[in-house]
Amino acid sequence: MEIAMAFVIGGLYAAAIYMMLRRSIVKLVIGLVLLSNAANLLIFTAAGLTRGAPPLVNVGDVLPPGPSADPLAQALILTAIVIGFGVLAFAVVLIHRAYEVVGADDMDKMKDTDT
Amino acid sequence: MLYAILSTFVLAAFSPWVHRLAGRYSGWVLALLPAALFVYFASFLPAINAGETVVIVTPWMPGLDIQLSFLVDGLSLLFALLISGIGFFIISYAGRYLEGDRDLGRFYVVMLSFMGSMLGLVLADNLIAMFVFWELTSVTSYLLIGYRNEDPKARKAALQGLIVTVGGGLALLAGIVMLAIAGGSYELSEILNSGDAVREHALYLPMLILILLGAFTKSAQVPFHFWLPNAMAAPTPVSAYLHSATMVKAGIYLLARLNPSLGGTEVWFTVLALFGAVTMFLGVFLSFRSTGIKSVLAYSTIMALGTLTMLIGIGTETALLAAMTFLLAHSLYKGALFLIAGILDHEAGVKDFLQTGGLRGALPITSALAMLSALSLAGVVPMLGFVAKEAMLESVLEAPGLVPVLTLLAMASAILGVAVAAIVGIRPWFGPRVETPKRPHEAPPALIAGPMVMAGLGLVFGLGPGLADGGILAAAARAVNGGVPVETYLSLWHGLNWPLAISALALVTGLLLYSRWDRARERLAWVDIAARFGPERGYDRLMDGIVRISEWQTRLLQSGYLRYYIMFIVLATAVMVGVTAQIFDVSAGPLRLQDLRFYELAILAVMGASALFAVLSQSRLGAVAALGAFGFTVALTYVMFSAADVGITQILVETLTVILLVLVLFRLPGFLGLSPRLIKLRDAAVAMAGGGMVMLLLLSTHNAREFPSIAWYFIEEAVPAGQGRNVVNVILVDFRALDTLGEIFVLALAAVGVYAMIRFRAEDRK
Predict the structure, then answer these.
(1) Which of B591, B652, B668 to probe by mutation at the A interface, max A CB count within 10 Å?
(2) Where are the domains of chain A?
(3) What part of A 32-61 touches B (C-beta under 8 Å)?
(4) Which CATH code of 1.10.3680, 1.10.10, 2.60.120, 1.10.287 fits the domain covering A2-49+70-110?
(5) Which residues contact B458 (CB under 8 A, 6 or more apart)?
(6) Is the pLDDT of residue A114 over 60?
(7) Residue B539 — pLDDT band, cuts 50, 70, 90?
(8) Is the pLDDT of residue A113 over 60?
(9) Could you state, in order of their start, the residue ranges of all structural domains in chain B?
(10) A67 CB within 8 Å of a chain B CB
(11) A115 has a chain B CB within 8 A of its CB
C-alpha cells in the first residue's frame, strides 16, 4: 500500500508545485491546500500504514490490544492540519484584501510596494 | 595564564571609562596591564631557560574535545614578552600621540583586544583555540587599520588587509584540521612530538600548502605583500605595533611553531627559502624607492619577514638561532623607528623623507635614537642587528641547497638594507635644514620612552649577545628545533670570515647607493608601471569580479517573482536529493502492489483524479469543489489506516475550507489564461521533477528504520502517566501540551489577522 501511496503523493506534490508556479493567486492558494495535504500524507505514509489498529486502549487495560498504528505521527499530522487551516484562512482573506486594493488576480501586478 | 589573557579583554571592555577617568594620563594607566603581564611572563623565564615546557590546561568544550590549553616554551615566551613589553610602550605612546582624539576610547578597546588576541595566539596549545585567536587578530587589526574611518583610503586598506588575512585564515583552518588528523591530536604539544607521522602522512602536501597560505598572507610574503604597506593608513602607534612584534609576526610564529612537525622536508625548505628570499629582496627594493617615512619602514618590514621565513626554511641550527635573533633585533629597531616616525609626524608634521633634513639640532635625543636603530637595521657593529645579520649570512652560506640564489639575494638585500638604513638614519637629521610644517621640538617623555628603551636594548644585546643568547633566544631556537638544544652561539666577533666580508661590502656599497638615492629613484620609475600588473591589481580585479558575479546572481535569483523562487527551491532540492541518492546508491526497493485492496485503490484513484481536476479546471467553483472531494478522500485514507482522530479533524477542516474558499473566491474574477503554452510545459516539467523526487524519497525510505521508534514510549505511558485511553489525544493534551498551546496561539493570531483585515476594509469604506 505504501508503494501506491508513494505514487499518489508524488503526483500530489507535482500538482501542488505546478499550481504554485502559476501567476494567479487563487491557483497559488489551491496549490497551497494541495501541498499541505500532500505533506500530511507523506508523514502519515512514512510512519507506516497499519490497517484497523488505532492506538486506543480498552477499558481496564494498560496497553492497546496487539500492535497499533504510530500515534506520534498522527498527533503531528493533527496539529499540522489545524495549523494549515489557520494559515489558509489568513492567506485567503489576505488575497481577498489584496485583490480589493490591486484589482487584479495577477501576482505580477502586485510587485510594486506602493499602490 | 587564562586570566592573564582574559584580563586584556576585560580591561578592553572598561577602557573607555578608564580613559574618561584618567584623562590625559589614560595611556600610562592602561599601559600598567601590559607591564604587569610582562613581569608575569618574565617569571616563567628561569623555568624555560632551564629547558622546561609548561602546559596549562583549562577544559573548554569537553564534549568536543576542545580545551583551552596554553603552551609556554621558549618560542611562545619570546613572543609573549615582545607583545607585552612593546605593548606597554605602544599604549603609553598612543595615549600621548592621540591625545584629544575623539575616538581614543575606542582605540584603547581595540588595541587591548588586539594585544589579548595576539597573546592568545602565541600561547595557545590547542590548534582550534590558536585559530580563533588568529582570526581575532585579523578582525581587531581590521578595526585598527580602519581607525580613521572617515577616510575612504583607510577603510579600503583595512578591508584589503582583512580579506587577504582572513582568506589565508580560511586556508589555515583547513590546514590545521588536516594537521590534527595527521598528528592525531589538536594539542600542539602532542603534534610537535609526532613530526615523522605528519611528514609521512598522505595529506602532508595539501596540509603544507594550506598552512603556508595562512602564514604567507598573514606575514605579507610575496605575492600577498601588498596589504602591508597599505595598512600604513593606521595611526603610527598601530603601525609600530603591527610591524614590530605582532600581526605580521603571527605568520612567522606559526612557521616557527610548526617547524618541528612540518619542517625538514625538501618542499618545506625550497618553498620557504625561495619565497622568503624573494620577499626579502622585493621588500627592501621597494623600500629603497619609497620616500614616505612610514612606507619605507613598511617595505623594510616585508624584507624582515622574508628574511625570517627564509631562515626558518633553511632550518639549520645556526639558521634557527639567527631567525630568533633577527626576530628580536627587528622587533626592537622597527618598533623604535616607527615610533620615531610618529614623533616626526607629531612634533614636526612631516610624513615624507623628502620634507626632512637637518633636524638633528631640533630633536637631539630622537635623532640619536633613530641613528642607533638605523645602525641595527643596517646590521652594523655593535648592534644586535649586526649579530643577527652575521648569523643570517652564515646560515645562508651553509644552506642545504640553493646557496648561489640565496646568497645573491641576501647580498643584494644587505646592500639595499644599508641604503635604506641610511635613508632612515641620515636623511632626516643631517644636511641643510628643511622647513617643516610644524616648528620641530623634542618629543615628550611618553613618546620618547619607547624608542629609547628599544634602541638601548638593541645596543645592550648587541654588545653582549650572551645576555639574550644564553637565555630566551636559545630557548626559543630550541623550541623551533623541536626541543633539541642548538649547539651554536652568538657573538659580535666571529673572526675574519665570509659573512663579515659581505657585511663590509654591503656597508660600503649601500652608502654609495644612498648618496645617489635621488637619481636611483628616477631610474626606478618603471617600477610604478610594473606595479600596475602586480598582485594588488589581481586583488582589485578579484574584488570587482566578486561584485559583478554577485550582481549577476542576485539579478538571477532575486527576481521578485514568487514563482521563480519556488522554481529554484524545487529544482535545487530535486537536484541535491537526486545527486545524494546517486552517491549513496539509494534504490526504490521492490514494487509490491499485491497487498492493495480494491476499495483502497478506488479511494486513491478518486484522490488523484480530484486533485488533477482541481489543477485543470477552468472554473473556480469547479476547482474548489474538486478540492473538497480531494480533502474528503484524504480524510478517508486517514480513517482506513487507523487514524480516526486525524480523519475527523480533516473532515471538519475540509468542510470549513470549502466554505471559506467559496465565500471569498466568489468575489474574485474568474481564471484568466495568463501563461502561454510553453511556460505551462516548463512549469509542468519542474513540478514533475519535484513530485518525482518526493516519490523517490518515499519509495526509498519505505520500511527503512535506522532507529527504534519513540512512539512506544507514548503508547506505554498513555494510561499510567496520562490517564487517557486514546493515545493520540493523550499526546496532544498531555505529553506535547505545549505544542498544542502554540497551535492554539497560531490559530488565535490568524483569527485576529483575519478580523483586522476585514475591519480595516470596513473603515476604508466609511
Answers:
(1) B668
(2) 2-49+70-110
(3) 33-34, 37-38, 40-42, 44-46, 49-59, 61
(4) 1.10.287
(5) B329, B332, B333, B336, B372, B373, B376, B383, B384, B385
(6) no
(7) confident
(8) no
(9) 1-258, 263-524
(10) no
(11) no
